[in-house]
Amino acid sequence: MMNGRWLFGALVWWLCCAMAQADSGSVQLIATTVQNVPVKIIRVNMNDEEVKVTGMLAKQRRGRTEPLESMVSRARPTAAVTGTFFGTRNYLPVGDIVIEGKMVHFGGIGTALCVTPDNQVEFVDVKRNRREDWSAYDFVIRSGPRLVTAGKIGVDPRAEGFRDRNLLRPAWRLAVGLTRDNHLLFVGTRKPISLSQMAVVMHRLGCVDAINLDAGSSTGMYYRGKVLMRPLRRLTNLVLIYEQRESYERARYSILPVRIREHTR
Prior knowledge:
Blueprint: H1 4-19, E1 27-34, E2 37-45, E3 52-57, H2 68-75, E4 79-82, E5 97-99, E6 102-105, E7 111-115, E8 121-125, E9 139-143, E10 146-149, E11 152-153, E12 171-179, E13 183-193, H3 195-204, E14 207-213, E15 221-223, E16 226-229, E17 237-242, H4 245-255, H5 258-261
Antiparallel strand pairs: 1-2, 2-13, 3-17, 4-15, 4-17, 5-6, 5-9, 7-8, 7-9, 10-11, 10-14, 12-13, 12-14, 15-16
């Protein structure tokens, strides 16, 4: 007999799929409600070799800020969401960021979303402040805390180095998770909810692994020319999603951090 939770999750996912925009291909926008939480989902089929998931820094440098609209105007992605947390005084991200296989920032906190050059996705746990060898990956962004691990819900911010009590309060949320069929789900809500509630949402959507992303006043989500969720502050970093790698290549020079760009001329 099928597990009841699995069946419920499959039903929710079928309903989500039914609501996906018809013209969306390997990158789809879905609007639905899960556990009484209204969410927008950017679903990315990582089985498509044309798909590219990467990141960018504000003004192509560490410690800078930039409006969401300015960043996506330069990058021209299919979709984009806010990345990892950052300090409100020094504007430095709290987690590691790797772009095109090069470490562009060491933060040392959280769990890492890692994408290989051939679109294999892993969520990697790293001890706080330990420098990891990310050379096997094209893109890494370290955020958190973990919401789902190997199909099980579990949230422990302190174990991953998060000390800000505001993280535990109900807030607008963004998260990213991986399904069994190698689809990345970027999920956002403007309903203030706890980390535990967000973990349940990601689990119900079929994610076997999931982590929290920066949200609250930083909540940003963009899709095919439209800002779906506008942040209340300038951002320091974004996760970018391209449906066609050619589109990324055209914008590449305007995205790459200065320290990498200077070596690619």
